[in-house]
Specification:
Blueprint lengths: L5 E4 L5 H4 L7 E4 L8 H7 L3 E6 L7 H5 L6 E4 L9 H6 L3 E3 L6 H16 L2 H9 L20 E5 L3 H13 L2 E5 L6 H7 L1 E3 L2 H7 L2 E4 L13 H6 L5 E4 L8 H10 L4 E4 L10 H4 L4 E3 L8 H18 L15 H4 L1
Parallel strand pairs: 1-2, 1-3, 3-4, 4-5, 6-7, 6-9, 7-8, 9-10, 10-11, 11-12
Bound molecules: 2-keto-D-gluconic acid.
2-keto-D-gluconic acid binds next to loops.
Protein name: Gluconate 2-dehydrogenase
GO molecular function: glyoxylate reductase (NADPH) activity; hydroxypyruvate reductase [NAD(P)H] activity; NAD binding
InterPro entries: D-isomer_2-hydroxyacid_DH, D-isomer_2_OHA_DH_cat_dom, D-isomer_DH_CS, D-isomer_DH_CS1, D-isomer_DH_NAD-bd, NAD(P)-bd_dom_sf
């Protein structure tokens, strides 16, 4: 026993980034990346006061009831649908996420997926690696243009705005739908027009989803919404699995209801709907939109800062910089 509070990290993290924790905590870090079943999660949390967790770790009332020593949870992600924030607050447990540090990197990747799907980059590479490039047809591998088209953004928070900003160089028309409208000067800055969801679905050539996952957003894009999109449209999901009905999307892609999709997130990830795996007009990516070297380190560093601050240490002592439930530490 070190006498220091026990801290659990649910996945391997950059050793130099977590180093400052060792001075104040007895650190227990998982050596492997894996999804822990609830029982294993609860046993890992025995005697733990602080935890750094990720999307696969669901911290809800049941888990909290069995983890009475827990005081603070730092989530490695801006989205925190794996945390039941009400239950955490009721149990007096503080929680933080990692907003802002990943906006630009995720926006880069949204464009990578959009361009990749529009120009069929990964399907073409598979064809080449397969040894099929023995001659080239002038009218083969025709993709869709991104420049000059209409880009739709569903969810215009900080990441949506970073995506919109990149559209200026591509001379795309940007339309968006969001719970609340941007200020007129911000709309002008991105040359973005606010439209209702139906117009967004009908007019977008490329539609990027950047919504948080809430019960109301579950299957925000299902069969009915896909049917309203253009036959040439491409859907890009970098938000959360479950916002799209993956089975309905696979069917729409197979039937040609829309032309293509690019998905970084999936309803049952890491499992992917088998029908999607059969299709060539969908680009599949293993939830890595924020995975640049600098950004993943920045996310880990922010989680570390929050934990240190929650326990009265570091530059933000007593004021975790991205606390989600401020009432708890007041
Ligand atoms: C994940 C994300 O956090 O920030 C989010 O909400 O989905 C990602 O950045 C990342 O996959 C680490 O789990």
């Amino acid at each position: 026993m070190s006498g220091k509070p026990k801290l659990w990290i649910s996945r391997p993290l950059f050793p130099d980034v977590v180093e400052p924790l060792h001075e104040y905590f007895e650190v227990h870090a998982e050596a492997e990346e894996r999804v822990l079943p609830p029982d294993a999660l609860v046993s890992r949390l025995a005697g733990v006061e602080a935890a750094i967790v990720g999307l696969a770790d669901r911290i809800d009332a049941d888990v909290l009831a069995k983890a009475p020593s827990l005081r603070f949870v730092a989530n490695l992600g801006v989205g925190y649908n794996n945390l039941d924030l009400d239950a955490l607050s009721a149990a007096g447990v503080g929680a933080s996420n990692t907003p802002d540090v990943l906006n630009e990197t995720v926006a880069d990747y949204a464009w990578a997926l959009m361009l990749g799907a529009a120009r069929r980059v990964s399907a073409a590479e598979r064809w080449l690696r397969d040894g099929q490039w023995t001659s080239s047809r002038f009218d083969g591998w025709l993709g869709a243009d991104v420049h000059g088209r209409t880009l739709g953004i569903l969810g215009m928070g900080r990441i949506g705005q970073a995506i919109a900003r990149r559209a200026i160089g591509f001379r795309t028309r940007v339309i968006y739908h969001n719970r609340s409208r941007l200020a007129p000067e911000t709309e002008r800055e991105y040359a973005a027009s606010y439209v209702d969801k139906d117009t967004l679905l009908r007019e977008s050539d490329h539609l990027i989803l950047v919504l948080p996952f809430t019960p109301a957003n579950r299957h925000a894009i299902g069969a009915a919404e896909l049917a309203r999109m253009k036959p040439g449209a491409i859907l890009i999901n970098i938000a959360r699995g479950g916002i799209v009905d993956d089975a309905a999307l696979a069917e729409a892609l197979a039937r040609g209801t829309i032309a293509g999709a690019a998905l970084d997130v999936f309803e049952g990830e890491p499992a992917v709907h088998p029908a999607l795996l059969e299709l060539d007009n969908v680009l599949l990516s293993p939830h890595i939109a924020s995975a640049s070297r600098d950004t993943r380190r920045g996310m880990a560093a922010l989680a570390v800062d929050n934990v240190l601050a929650a326990f009265g240490h570091g530059p933000h002592a007593g004021r975790p910089p991205t606390l989600l439930n401020p009432g708890v530490l007041a």
